[in-house]
Every structure is written in structure tokens, then in C-alpha cells.
Amino acid sequence: MTKLTSLGAIALFSLSLPLVAFAANKPMQPPMPQTSAVQHKAMMVRHQATAARKEAATARAHAMMATNANSLKTTHMHLHHVVNCLAGPNGKGFDSSFEDPCKGMGHGALNDAAGNDTLTGVLKKAMSEAQAGLKSNDEATARMAAKKVAALLGKAARH
Questions:
Q1: What tens digit of pLDDT does each residue of 113-158 get?
Q2: Taking the model in full, what pTM does it have?
Q3: d(CA 135, CA 119)
Q4: 118: how many CB neighbours lie within 10 A of its CB?
């Protein structure tokens, strides 16, 4: 009986050797195609433009909140959020004493839109309007600036 068991084990072992050898020698997957520097740059520009649009959409939401705010202080707070989203943490106008609702999305919509002149132009206009709203001590004027910012950032989503 043990002789039969031993013979069965040897037979099973000898049958499995070709399978192990086949698995070890299976052909390798073809290598992934290399991307050229131009293709890589194009992918990065698309990624940054996507980040810029997300930041612009978040900034637009805060511009709309500023438009509907019930006090000058709240309008200004949301306009600061707009500026922070557009500027990014290392950008001109960023104020770390206010929340950055776009944290982790990119490097600021203006930075991320580099290479897209149309989008950059719209974002610069929105930044200018937001800063004008922040300088105003009149609630109606600040809200009107926020409304203009929201409209501009709505355009940014299409570029």
C-alpha cells in the first residue's frame, strides 16, 4: 500500500514539473510604451487644466455664497475663499488666516491654468473682481462684485 502511495506521489510530482516549468518560462508582457517629453507635457497641462477647473468651480460656489450672504463680513469671508482658490497657497493674494476650500485640489486655479491663455484671462478678471469686492466697505458693492466673480467663474468652466 505504501508502495502504491509512493508511486502515486512520484507520478503526481513528475506530472506537475512541466506545469511549473511552463509557468516559470511564460512569456513576459510587452513593455508599456514610453511617452515622449512632448506627450508628458501635454498630459501635465491637461491635468493642471482639470485642477484649475475644479478650483474655479469651488471658487464659484463661494462667490455665489458671497452674493447671498447676509452681512458684509460674511460676503468678505467668502470672497477671501475665492481669492485663496484662485491664488493657491503660494500665490499672490493668498490669505492663510482664511480657509482654503481648494486645499489639495491643485496649486491654485491661476497657477494650474498656465498654458491655457483663455482660462487664465478669465481667472485673472475674476481675481480682480474678488479683490475689488474685498476692498469695498459697502455690502451691496461687495455683493455685486461677488456676482460678477460667479459669472466669470461660470465661463471658466467652459474653457
A1: 998 899 999 999 999 999 999 999 999 999 999 999 999 999 887 7
A2: 0.72
A3: 25
A4: 12
